[in-house]
Amino acid sequence: MNPQETESILTVALMAAFADGTKSEREREAVRRVADALGADAAIDLPRLYREALTSDLDLAAVTRPLENLKLKQLAYEMATGVIEADGERRASESDFLGRLAATLNLPNGMAGSLNEAADALAVAAEGAVTGDARLNEAELDKKILNASVTNAALELLPESLASLAIIPLQMRLVYRIAQAYGYDLDRRHARDFVATLGVGLTSQYLEQFGRKLLGGVLGGIGGKLGGAVGRQAASSGLSFATTYALGRVAQRYYQSGRTLDAETLKRTFASLMDEARGLAPRYQEEIRKVAANLDTSRLSSLIKKV
Question: How far is 179 from 69, CA to CA, in rounded Å?
């Protein structure tokens, strides 16, 4: 992509991140990392993009004008949808932004709707864990955490950007299931707040996943800096494994303790478990590759319910 196309997609990402009225520093940092993944250079003034997205009433038509290629338009819309869906709740202002973006990009009939339906299905699949009477024992929870970690690592290896949309719902479902095993039925907000307490930003996590995936194949058909793509994608797969594993383990300790651990203890525990999980991930590389080879992105919501 040229600098104008890169700037356009980054601005769309920022506008989506701030469409709900929040001004998160973590999200801005995530967009910076996406800029690195896109190969943004000194020609792009990121601080200016931040200021404009935060303080200006930007014209979507002007912002997206450089995106003449349909794949680039689709990429911009997929990124915006993922950013908005990352916290599992699409607000009216965010739906309005996606509608205006789809119209401005003049996407083919059904493309935007299909993606939104898929995102909604993933969110519903994650929440489905709250219902039911199943109570898993410790060994079953251990297996559940490992399976979710392997699956998320495998999703990171897939070139389809839709696969990245499934990672956070799978993590949310894992938290639901663990809490349920200890007798706690969570609502969506509690699960989000628990993850945020650990320092894992949902929107920023999605942006980072998307940015890493761009170098792993999404840009293959439209050009871009693909040097080192395989190594970067393998590293991001390991990070998804580690994040999911550490999240599951700290949730296990938290709900097992009767939710008595304070925020600082949770953060320290999560950081320690992330180190442990990074060392554990290489043992499962072959299993991760096998799972990735058999994943069907058209059935991601069913996959989440199984894990």
Answer: 45
Question: What residues have CB less than 8 Å from 151, skipping those under 6 apart?
Answer: 170, 291, 303, 307
> Residue 124 and residue 122: Cα distance in Å, rounded?
5
Report the Cα 95 to chain-centroid distance in Å: 18
| Count of Cβ atoms closer than 10 Å to residue 1 Cβ | 22
Q: Is 200 helix (H, G, I), strand (E, B) or coil?
A: coil
At residue 233, the pLDDT reads 54
Sequence ranges of the domains in the chain = 3-306
| Of the candidates 36, 205, 15, the residue with the CA atom closest to the CA atom of residue 101 | 15
Structure tokens given for 184: 């706690």
pLDDT one-digit tens code per residue, 224-275: 443 444 445 566 788 889 999 999 999 999 999 999 999 999 999 999 999 9
Contact 82, 161 (CB under 8 A): yes
